[in-house]
Fold these 4 entries.
Entry 1:
Amino acid sequence: MKDLDFMAHAIELAKKGRRHVQPNPMVGCVIVKKNKIIGEGWHKAYGGAHAEINAIKNCKKKFGSKKASLLIKGADVYVNLEPCSIEKNTPPCTNTLIEYQIKRVICGTLDPNPSINGRGIKILKKAGIQTKIGLLKNECEELNRIFFTTQKKLRPYIILKGAQSIDGKIALKNGESNWISNSDSRKDSHHIRSRVKGILVGRETAEQDNPALTVRLSSKELGLRKNDAVPQPVKIILGSLKKSTKTKKLFAGSEKIIIGSKLPAKKIKNVEYLEYEKKDFLDRFMQDLLQRNISSILVEGGQQTLNAFIGKNLFDELVLYTAPMILGKGSKDTMSSKAPMSIKKSPRLKLIKLESFGDDIKTTYYNPNA
Amino acid sequence: MKDLDFMAHAIELAKKGRRHVQPNPMVGCVIVKKNKIIGEGWHKAYGGAHAEINAIKNCKKKFGSKKASLLIKGADVYVNLEPCSIEKNTPPCTNTLIEYQIKRVICGTLDPNPSINGRGIKILKKAGIQTKIGLLKNECEELNRIFFTTQKKLRPYIILKGAQSIDGKIALKNGESNWISNSDSRKDSHHIRSRVKGILVGRETAEQDNPALTVRLSSKELGLRKNDAVPQPVKIILGSLKKSTKTKKLFAGSEKIIIGSKLPAKKIKNVEYLEYEKKDFLDRFMQDLLQRNISSILVEGGQQTLNAFIGKNLFDELVLYTAPMILGKGSKDTMSSKAPMSIKKSPRLKLIKLESFGDDIKTTYYNPNA
């Protein structure tokens, strides 16, 4: 096996934490001696031990504490992200790696946090450990796309979702939008819900559609273990929503609700209010969500809300379900942002995934200009 | 091998005629005796021998004329389309099958021409030949989708093509539309051009874009043999086009040009004019094109022309290239047909194919309501 293979294995291990570590990154670690894996681990859950520590534990379990220590001494450590060098929920991993006298640390990427970026590597080098940075860099960045975004932009990773006709319409003139996409597409969208920490809709949509904003899939459908609870994102409303019969479903569950608005909203029990003085509070609202550990959100509409984000180029991912119908003249445009000056100058998104659900298609784009 | 396998083989043989038989259907034929193929053939080119005749020839070539006749007597014939029963360019195949004393004729579909539909089968039955209809019916209909359309609707098979942004815009407000789709998408669209008998654009597009309307791919790129000429469709203009410096490229080649218009157009040498009294002459124009053996057309725009076809529900296929950009407010809608009364009642197209070219996607839809 080669360097690349060990790093690829670390990435696979990291993915096992996908549903449990946000807002932390997914991290996997492989300890290698004489070209053989002697220990492996991953960050299992937010607040729990880091991947490096779990890999050492795994080695001890395999070989016993004493032999493990001898084996780890002089070994190579493969980890997709720079080892942590600060004490937060757990002691810094750099200390542990130094203590165990690791020979070489191979990282996929540096920590994206500007105040940390390279700090762990510096500490390791100072202690005489060899380091190598950037192995499978793209794959490691892609793996932790959410984490990298939150660290660099200090806001949640933002996914916009829309269901439209092939002519780019989100609703008829009278507002009717149920159901443009088919039931398989709608079911798929619950998978996206299950992967984010919050679902955001505008006040108007909340009042008109009375959405539950819950993940309505079973543990089995989500690929979870039988007894694992289905993750339910925080419900986030943009605008001064009042509780009423129109919004019954939204307030029905036990999930946390956050309302961000300019106007002070009428307070409801168990709802957190974030009130802003400026009319244009969207950037600030996003920062405040991240401070509440909401590291990823899915913006589900309606049209005005989607375009508030598009207009500010405030999104990292765009998911469109396109139904095979033409809604024609006078129907509502999904997107109504300002036209570019020329086609050449129009920023382009990056196509990431193309799927079909019956006659609907689903396109997933990244926004490289966010 | 089973009935299904022999018919599937006949379909594969039929496909070999794809580029050469329009407006005729593609037909393949397999002659089977004691579960073994003793002859096979296909319709190779418009005006040439039919598949059944070529299959008999193939049998004779294999076994010699005398032995072939003995073998064919009592054999089964698999053919994707009902054998012809009228003398047109060639003698009717039904006669030949009767002469050779075929035992059983297995057809995928009847001839869609209402005045023939079942006539050949009737003749065969009367002569004591067993018949079976409908084996791999869907596949056989799909194979000859163009032929079935021309026979049933008495107009060419109509493909609409557009390149749009993800928000369904075909151009900026000022008309700029070069280049929304990328070069790979544009290259792919030349493959579609190569498969139709005519390319249609509106007068305005012809004048504004000065398109050549030619297939700009090599024989090799088209999968043709080295010495095969690249097929060049007839150029068709909707509206009273004048020859000018603005339309230089259009008139540059040696391809036939047909102009259909209400106003009498200023006559140009080598151009055929179809003039109509009614303002709404599109249906009539299409019929006249088919009478000129133009069995399939690709409508490339512009926006008004596309919508003339969409508005009349006059299309069999819609091909959309969608580029990963948002052209936003004020840009021109690709489609501007009348909105449906409700989403439920909105007719839906059928997704046939989903492809990507770099970050562009290509969606191919059939129109089941045409």
Note: Chain B touches chain A through 50 residues (CB under 8 Å).
Entry 2:
Amino acid sequence: MSDPFARLNTLLKHQHVIDSVDGLLGWDEQVNLPPESADFRAEQMATMAKISHAAACDPEVGKLLTELESQVDALDEDRRAVVREARKDYDEVTRLPEEFVEEKARHSSAAYHAWHEARAARDFPAYAPFITKHIELAKKEADLQGWGDRPYDYMIDQHDPGFTAAKIDALFAELKAGLVPLVREIDAASANDGPSPFRGFPIGKQREFLEEVTAKLGFNYQRGRIDVSAHPFCSGNGADVRMTTRFQEDEPMDSLFSSIHETGHGLYEQGLRREFHHNALGEHVGMAVHESQSRMWENQVGRSRAFWRFFEPRFRECFHEQLKDVSSEKLYREVNAVRPTLIRVDSDEVHYNLHIILRFEIEQALFAGTLAVTDLPGVWNDKCEELLGRRPQHDSEGVLQDVHWSGGAFGYFPSYCLGNMIAAQNWVKAREALPDLDAEFARGDFSSLLDWTRREIHHHGRKYPTLELVERVTGRALSPQPLLAYLRERYGEIYLQSRGAD
Amino acid sequence: MSDPFARLNTLLKHQHVIDSVDGLLGWDEQVNLPPESADFRAEQMATMAKISHAAACDPEVGKLLTELESQVDALDEDRRAVVREARKDYDEVTRLPEEFVEEKARHSSAAYHAWHEARAARDFPAYAPFITKHIELAKKEADLQGWGDRPYDYMIDQHDPGFTAAKIDALFAELKAGLVPLVREIDAASANDGPSPFRGFPIGKQREFLEEVTAKLGFNYQRGRIDVSAHPFCSGNGADVRMTTRFQEDEPMDSLFSSIHETGHGLYEQGLRREFHHNALGEHVGMAVHESQSRMWENQVGRSRAFWRFFEPRFRECFHEQLKDVSSEKLYREVNAVRPTLIRVDSDEVHYNLHIILRFEIEQALFAGTLAVTDLPGVWNDKCEELLGRRPQHDSEGVLQDVHWSGGAFGYFPSYCLGNMIAAQNWVKAREALPDLDAEFARGDFSSLLDWTRREIHHHGRKYPTLELVERVTGRALSPQPLLAYLRERYGEIYLQSRGAD
């Protein structure tokens, strides 16, 4: 092997393939695993984690990187990006002692079980010590990684490199200032909407319809599939994407939109360049951009009038009986139903970002040391009242609702809201670039939008950091204003029309 | 690590877990893989094969074995078996150079595709060179393994240690002598039976029924599942067994009995002692015994009158309309239908062993050099006429029908027939030991038979070689006579009853 760049890629590809096997074990665990096979699956995943770690820490990778860095001027821009990102990954994985990685994995496993039990028992105090320990571990990890006194910035960087708590704080403050009054307005206008009228949508038909929709959006079922799991997710990579959804007869919108959401993730993975799946040119750039893809297809596209112009007839064909008393306008209002809830994952699009702002403010305070873990429930509930206008009755519908902290995944929540911002900002640009989108959607053609995302976003992989990528795509720095404008336009048209001239 | 036996087990367990991951990839490939994801799956499996090979060749295993062998008197009988079998595996895997393993894998892949195309095109000459090369590779492999001038014995040993071509030849000759006239008799008596009258059995109900049946037989769905694939198989291990079946509306007996067959394999895996899955005390002993388990549940149990006494009412409940003109006796005759076919996998129980004898005789001649690969089709067809009384019209229903040789799996076919012999011989013993079996089956209780197989067979894992295990279980050397007696009893009662006094 005389070409160090080629050799580096061979080793990166080896890592990528190993990690993909680990990913399949995770998918199978959620989709197929027999109830009493969990112990053995844990052994399989622990073994693969060790093999993966050994491949990622291969000293030869370090030597090749050093060699390539010494001749960086001879590399083109793409290869520099590959070396730069491989260096970041290599340093991060080799800086953590194996005992630390094992300790964190052990604690995450214990904390997950503790969270599960605490949520069922509505018993926050039983779970609190596990959060405390996870914060300690996060601080220790940040220290080992050289982030010293900025542990929360380190955690954010793990999900979205280039962002910091300060940057997010500024974006979220601006968003909050515009969003809270808008939400109040829409809440007032939708307050008398009853619960969903949808009942008894047969699951076979739901499945048929959502497979048609997601294929029409461009998901390639020749290189992917959709199955059922308790919580929808998207895993795998562009060579073999594994999405999931879930079905309830009275919740047809839940399975449909969770599928479109996961399809957005899947389209991103399928859009990354196959020959580079193992390096920075074909890897996703971060969670926020990933979420921007899922959110755009779910919300900007899937909840639009143009989308339903095309799909409503087929939807009614599938569910003739269930929809016979539902007008087109009522159907569209259900697609964009606004029903505030304390549970983030059940939240409508209008309220969703407030749930995230709440979590970000709390994580910041926890890491700054201005909020004690024991005080979490009270602060959570106060913030719920402030932001959502309602107070949890118990911690299972409050601070205990999310799984994330049990795995030590601090700094993850902001990605959801950043993804919404990026989706809205990209959307503005896409509509400028593709002025016929509405007409195309209305005839069931989503290809020009998909091509645009492939060209503008997917094609670059991880070459540009997120904030730079957003500027390249949209011509301006990331801002919450497009999201606010989008929400006002979409929901204003439905709920505030009589006041449209305000 | 001061205890070499404990350390050996740690390493064997590591291998076992890696191999189980590879097994899951194989299962997923057959059950779930999107059509265009095959290339990436091949990369994943090649990577896992390398990792598995490295673990199996770990020099520390060799050192530990040498250390344990030097103090073998200090080991109890069980531990000696573990060391003995681990030594066999270790020597076999380390004797093959990596290049040879890769060459064989590459050739198997190419030969598989060549076989697939040749079968579709009915073009044996296109496939012949691949068989020739596989025979060369098999001879080279036998030589590398120290079997020198006995390559076919080596291939047989790979599937069923302790057997040789000479031993099988003697068993099969005795079987053939009794079987050919019996088959002629039954053929004559069943010649006027028409095709199956079964049509339009809804697949959902087929699935429901077979899951009830297989659960009732004792398959633990808490540690296993059944899915759909093109060809039924059973994979995984007792911690997580993955069986498959296939469905056609006009072939309810095919899905049912293939499921019961795979359930027999699954029950064996689930009966192996969990704490020893990674060593000789908890591994299966060979293909013939594996097949004896699947065959006993499929045939001796599943096609018995007692079994149908219990399940017929439920079967009629599931398929009331389809069975309304089918009497109980006609149903039982369909369960045990005798319809000669040139295709092994579609063969009834009566003719099946003749298909195997044909293949064994051909493999023997190929390896002895008394049959040239180019002469295979003619010899195959002649033997078909001799054994089955009919001649293939083209090679796709003759020599091209089986996948086995394309993977170099010579010496595998005999296991199927040996499995039938062992099943029948065990069955005699089980009925002596458990005189109430019929009554138990008729009330849907299969537990005493399952417990007996667990105690007598599964519990021993790979501790005793197959021929010794058979003697321990049944008190006599393996013989084809119990199989002949069983077939005469079962099929004589149905087809030759008027001549029962002969």
Note: Chain B has 20 helices and three strands.
Entry 3:
Amino acid sequence: MNKSRLEAFSDGVLAIIITIMILELKIPEGTSLQAVRPLWPALCSYILSFVFIGIYWVNHHHLLHTVKKVNGAIMWANMLLLFSLSLVPFATGWMGATRFDKITVAIYGALLLICGLSFTILAAVIKKTYSQDTSITDALNKSKPKSILSTLFYIASIPISLFVNPLLSALLFVIVSVMWIIPSKAIEKALMEQDEK
Amino acid sequence: MNKSRLEAFSDGVLAIIITIMILELKIPEGTSLQAVRPLWPALCSYILSFVFIGIYWVNHHHLLHTVKKVNGAIMWANMLLLFSLSLVPFATGWMGATRFDKITVAIYGALLLICGLSFTILAAVIKKTYSQDTSITDALNKSKPKSILSTLFYIASIPISLFVNPLLSALLFVIVSVMWIIPSKAIEKALMEQDEK
Amino acid sequence: MNKSRLEAFSDGVLAIIITIMILELKIPEGTSLQAVRPLWPALCSYILSFVFIGIYWVNHHHLLHTVKKVNGAIMWANMLLLFSLSLVPFATGWMGATRFDKITVAIYGALLLICGLSFTILAAVIKKTYSQDTSITDALNKSKPKSILSTLFYIASIPISLFVNPLLSALLFVIVSVMWIIPSKAIEKALMEQDEK
Amino acid sequence: MNKSRLEAFSDGVLAIIITIMILELKIPEGTSLQAVRPLWPALCSYILSFVFIGIYWVNHHHLLHTVKKVNGAIMWANMLLLFSLSLVPFATGWMGATRFDKITVAIYGALLLICGLSFTILAAVIKKTYSQDTSITDALNKSKPKSILSTLFYIASIPISLFVNPLLSALLFVIVSVMWIIPSKAIEKALMEQDEK
């Protein structure tokens, strides 16, 4: 089986997920300050999720880059990841509509945890399928510290939101997202330098 | 005519169908237990349909894999399949909203039956077009027992939901979906072993 | 400029248009006959539009098949076609919601007319760009009688809906759609026979 | 990293954005003149945004045409552009629903400004990455005057809408859109003539 249709389907689903969230940004009735105010938490929530789906898309891209053929196990692990991510618009809208209520932020954190685990499962399935190919396993090992750290942050965000402050959990999400955006650039530069040598 | 655009269009439609269903998961007003409770049947209904669309995507992938060129008959049989599948979000949402009411579960079963028949028609059209190509007809014959069993389960689900228990019909749907996920892996392993020989 | 991205974008837009219409099929409250009855006109309206978008997709496929490169004029003529078609879900939903009211059926007919004209413009722009290429112009000339007949039917459907009977106009739409599905198969067979010679 | 998935993902997101806007065209209750009247501003708003997203798609196409490989910086600059554009359906719907109210038109102008800046950032990142490749930098420099003029028009549209007349700002948007559609054809013709020499 060729990977191109898997990529095309995943790209389609991710593109729809990332765009569908905007439908939760309900158009306010009128333009008064009072009508516009509920927009802010919804917009913040949307931006956060846009960045997360963006990170998943980039990482998905990287993960499948070295893979040549896909089998049923990879296909279904990929489906699991897409399923987890498809719940993000719902959690995003709910978190925004309740203005970062502690319960919805905890649920959002739990969903990010599930998405992270789904990605780990997909990576593990690919690793197992291509266990002889060191270039793939090396690339996967490289992002392991970030994966573990993110997982810890997601787990921490749940009690923090419930018992301390939901905005602190939101801050954890922002830190995780920044962590995934920045270093990938650093790694790439290192790779490019290596290429030049 | 080339099959690549048919695949791209089908992937697009399937990606939208699978993602659009999440829009039926209405964001609850508030976070009270009472507000959240109607979510459960909707979520279960969504998971079930996600798996079914996923199965159709995988099988569609397999079906078109060996096909090289498409004609008008294949195109329109494919359209019929996409049309049937496009009704799944509606049936899913309805079944979820009525908490697996016996009538909506029966309608869901009838729709799965229609989708199954549409797939069979598409397979038959491809088979007829490529009647000389034994590799295609062989692959189609292999999944015949599963197709027949699924059809029987779908047919049975309608009276069972109406006169016995809708949850029993839902169980039949789960059995069918598991049947399609698991064995495809088994077949694949067998194929891989053959390749190694 | 390469045509592959134009095709991919058009496929994406058409896939979304064809699937988005299902969102107009509002999930009924409950399962009583009274709740379900408004579904029928909406479902009929949806089926009709699904077939029309399907026809446009197939014809768009044929039209671009022989084209190798696209210029700005082709791109924007294509945009005009996509824009016209993007209004179909709206007209479909309106016609369904008003149970084939004479005004909405007339508007639907007018929209089909606009879509047809947009397609003719796109075909004309392609024809002009590739005026030396007889294979393209020949293919376009072949579907001319059908285009003219469809246009006449669309024009007729407007006064017929307003002053005679909207269902008669709906019948005209069905005749047009059947006309485009059936003969394309006939032409293809003729082409295949030619190929064999 | 290959650019094909970046293009496919961007095409997907743009196709969804351009089509999702139509969902804001709420189906009127009935067919009376009174029910239909609120449609006009919504339709005008939709047409304007359709053209703008179309322009971005064409320019995105041109921009990535000469690029061979993408790095993380290009990916994230592209994400920023897609994010800005994903807010267009919201601003479009709001502007239409308030019948071109001065505040919503000013917000629409501000959003177009943000989209324009995001595109400039993407172009700058590509330029920096491929600073040695004169064919890319030349192509980017060619559209600079239009970019600057558009930016000025967007900036002007904000105070004009707030303090003079929102319809005047809408006129500025129309002028910008026409400016981007027409000359691209002129440039192309010039390019084609060059090719013939």
Note: Residues 91 and 107 of chain A are 7 Å apart (CA to CA).
Entry 4:
Amino acid sequence: MLVVQKYGGTSVGSIERIDAIADRIIKCKNENNKMVVVVSAMSGETNRLLEYGHHFSEHPDKRELDALLSSGERVTSSLLAIALNAKNHKAVSFSGGLAGIKTSNHHNNAKIEEVDTALINGRLEENNIVIIAGFQGVSKEGNITTLGRGGSDLSAVAIAGALKADICEIYTDVDGVYTTDPRIEPKAKKIDTICYDEMLELASLGAKVLQSRSVEMAKKFSVNLCTRNSFNDNIGTMIIKERKDMEHPIVSGIALDKSQARVSMIGVKDKPGIIAELFTILGDKNINVDMIVQTVGHDGKANVDFTVLNGELASTKEALKKYHEEFDNIEYDEDIAKVSVVGIGMKSHTGVASNGFTALSDENINILMVSTSEIKISIIVDEKYAELAVRSLHSVYELDK
Amino acid sequence: MLVVQKYGGTSVGSIERIDAIADRIIKCKNENNKMVVVVSAMSGETNRLLEYGHHFSEHPDKRELDALLSSGERVTSSLLAIALNAKNHKAVSFSGGLAGIKTSNHHNNAKIEEVDTALINGRLEENNIVIIAGFQGVSKEGNITTLGRGGSDLSAVAIAGALKADICEIYTDVDGVYTTDPRIEPKAKKIDTICYDEMLELASLGAKVLQSRSVEMAKKFSVNLCTRNSFNDNIGTMIIKERKDMEHPIVSGIALDKSQARVSMIGVKDKPGIIAELFTILGDKNINVDMIVQTVGHDGKANVDFTVLNGELASTKEALKKYHEEFDNIEYDEDIAKVSVVGIGMKSHTGVASNGFTALSDENINILMVSTSEIKISIIVDEKYAELAVRSLHSVYELDK
């Protein structure tokens, strides 16, 4: 098998951890696998470098910030190679750029455009364990770039896709993806298998183990992803194209997002294109609109509700100021929470939504907004009911069973 | 003017120091100079990385150690570029390899084979301050290499030579090269100008400011070198091909080296090739022989004295064991010191040596060994007289005037 493994910051957070990881890699190698290992910076290291950079400027030069930050992962990669060599296993480390990761020239948030696998394959043929610094690549212009948040996961998935690896294992300090946040519902269970689309919708549940960009790329290149805990030998969560189990549950998990604010425009005038214009304005200002719900109000006027990130509410208010005469009233509410019910099984089952609404109603939780997709129901509730809503939905869909 | 500056570890040892260095660079840039700046790792950083690497192995894999250590200089280079950009001066940083420094593939101690100046020149044309990580390059095989002790100085001189820079300024935390070690002779004076050959002979005096390899390379490519203190605006020491001052002093400085041990082979048999054989044996064992003095003894036998590093005395004894019957007696003495009188002016002056011998004799210091070259007299004395010998020679050659 060709195995790509990726170890996050806490997994390589100390010399002792790197030593432990080396043993884990050797165990896998000895099972007759070819191995490529992608590593993050040692935990704390990226922040240390960032602090240095921000000493000089609130907005350090982006090209130079990339050069600076990329060194964190390179240190880990060579230390891991030293550890493996010391344990008598051939290992070579490479920066992302030297390993063949070509990116766009968008510093701090580059996109992977191509992975040239010639060098990696050559070194694998020589029986090396190939260690690659994550989070980075090189642009056509010859500049070192970094890939933004969760970039090391993305490096691993892109490499696994390009190499047609049999599996891409993402190691963190948690066991996998849970049916909901165990801090909210202690009965939450680890999910054994989940498909890409579900994982994407459960972003908030997976945030600690896997960034959405990586799941999207895994989906695009059909990479078999697996998230595991580097601190134990538990099985983790497999993220794949299609779940093979016939009787998979209707609902896979309940996600909670408290970072949104609700904007309600009541009685929007029936003027062609006004709503499109509003959202174009927000888009131009880089305001990220999440849920959008439109209903018919009185007098043929429409009611339009949408959510934005709390942090972007002020600029949203500013942007909407000159449109106040286009609607009867506008309301803003920061104290809301988005609870999402996600499951590929919804496609073929009826009554999933109504079960959930009933469960919330039984707890006297008022539903402020609803939007649905094929595999997700998102419900906005008062923030104070957030945890209760998660627990009652987790229970009604029998995720604790 | 095209100015190459190099800043050592203490000069860039903190965020505040990097900030100060940025101001110094800008001042030079504003005097209408093109600038290339070579930087070392922040002081302490290389040792931190080395400690990490040595945790896994007493002898970490050399390729990986190079990849690891090279990150120290890269961090400094991007931080300095961030600082300069924040101060509204265009600056770009490069690793040694990306900057065009091609080396041999001898990890941990690579030789610079070529400096491809195309990229540097291009960036200078765009009015950038070009920052280059010192101490490193890349081999034809595509591996990151490091240049060994004093490697950043070597990077700077090689780049200055390749660019035909007008001057190469080496910044440390001392003012320059002194006529002797001021801790031994408080009357020691800073030398304003010195030529390459003198500097090479005064290696021990210059050790804190400049490695011999850099001086050799400066000599080879006729680079005008200057060592300066980054903590003040003093003038420093110019190291050039030939001193222009007609009336330069006969002696430039007095160097002291306590790291040597003396080996005296008394009554070496008159057997062709035996002495060559002895030194070949030592060379094969990588024992570095410094002074060699041969005199005619009694019965046509020769006396051969030589010095080796204290640390290599044990292996020297071991190597000579089976030759003991080739000479009447052999003596070893670790408690010696080598005092060297250096000056290009000696070439054209007589009586320089005898003045020195008289000065030592006046202090009742016994001379154990002497060897002379065109510009240097090296004298071995008992270690307990070392400082007194330095002071009396410093005085007799009027270096305190």
Note: Chain A touches chain B at residues 15, 18-19, 49, 52-53, 55-57, 60-61, 63-65, 67-68, 71, 74-75, 77-79, 81-83, 85-86, 91-93, 98, 119, 142 (CB under 8 Å).
